[in-house]
User: Fold Putative L,D-transpeptidase YbiS from Methylobacterium symbioticum.
Amino acid sequence: MRIVPIMACAILLGGCNFKAVPDPTLSARDTAFMALVPQAEDDPRYGRWLVSDPTKEAPGTIVVETKERLLYLVLPDGKALQYGVTVGDEAYGWTGRATVSRKAEWPAWHPPAEMIRRWPHVHAMEGGPANPLGARALYLSEGGRDTLYRIHGTNEPEKIGQAASSGCIRMRNIDVVDLFNRVPTGATVIVR
Assistant:
């Protein structure tokens, strides 16, 4: 009788169309800083997975599905890497097409003027574990102009899977390091 549940699990798992992706190698600074960032329980829905490409975009393209709270990096051979993200709150959401114009490790944060007007307590800060941009940032441009939106890490990993940002796409720090290592400047980003 015990073989029936085991066979049922094997059949169900055999139909799964995803595979875990190992963590990237971290520098000593990454390890030290990330140890100081608050930890959150990981929700498997928002983990880093190798999946069949649901986007149908060209390899190398980053696609953010805001309703699903998922980011895909399209790979060759019909595959994609899937990452969980935090997206823009309804009032601040952004959709469109952009290009990765710059990449930075543990970037400094310079909140835009409209954010400072909304939240006077925010201020510019150097990169580090308290910085809201987290471990890495991909700066997005549209038509050669900075959109002021970023794909970046976070110091609030508990918000992955939510609509809680001011329009930027936030990722777990380990995931943004993985994406940063895989994506060159000039990559296309589509936010739907």
The chain has a mean pLDDT of 88. Residues 66 and 192 are 6 Å apart (CA to CA). DSSP finds four helices and eleven strands in the chain. The chain has one domain: 17-191.
